[in-house]
Amino acid sequence: MSKADLINEAAKALGSIKDSKTLVDGVFSPFDDALETADDSEKNKLIDLLNQAEKKVEKIGGKNRDWWMSEVYLRKGRCAKGIFKTEKEYPFWKQAYDYARKSGNNEVIIQSGLSLGFEFVQFTTSIREILEIQMNCIKAVCAQGAAIHTRLRIMGVNLFSFWHQLEYRRLSEHDLKAKQLVIDGAKSLEKAGFDDDMAAPIMILLISKAYDFDDPSLEWAKHEAAVLDPQVPETIKTKIESYKLKGPRTVFNDK
Prior knowledge:
Largest sheet: none
Strand content: under 5%
């Protein structure tokens, strides 16, 4: 089916939406297929469709309203990329994230949070806010249960790349713990010669420590940290001591 046909199919389905199943099968599925190769003009048409879908979701209401609103705004954000200026694109991702947080839509938390926590940091007000978004992504990955170790590794790589390059001037008292664990930790790993991939599991543990978070899904990071232990700076070993591996090593494979 051509992109034009997919867009027309989604447009026709909008007129008969009565429930979430119709929204997914009739609008989101053809929409997602069309978006993969859409040009700027087609993206603008898709945003118009999403504006109509938003009104439909508002009208349908119900307990899952915020869940579906997060899905609508996630797609608006994806459409806006490359055709809108940053300040106009950002609100779509922020709305997607806020609706997803309210409704527990972990997949949208992950996707929107990655954008907000690494690409749109100029719109945040503090280091603490950035870290909270990044931490919520990690929690959502653990709760989602899909490709956990791959996704945690990607998060860890992003954390290291972002924080070891960050230059900061003024920190609030609330930012101090985060600075000591995450920012100083990233800079120490970089100084010790760690590359993105090596640093990834350590960064996951450092930010988790900052938020007193633990989860069975973090076993991957604990095992990786145990392998790297001889190369990990002593100052960092002390910080993540509570995550020290107990028991034999396990081989992790995402399915």
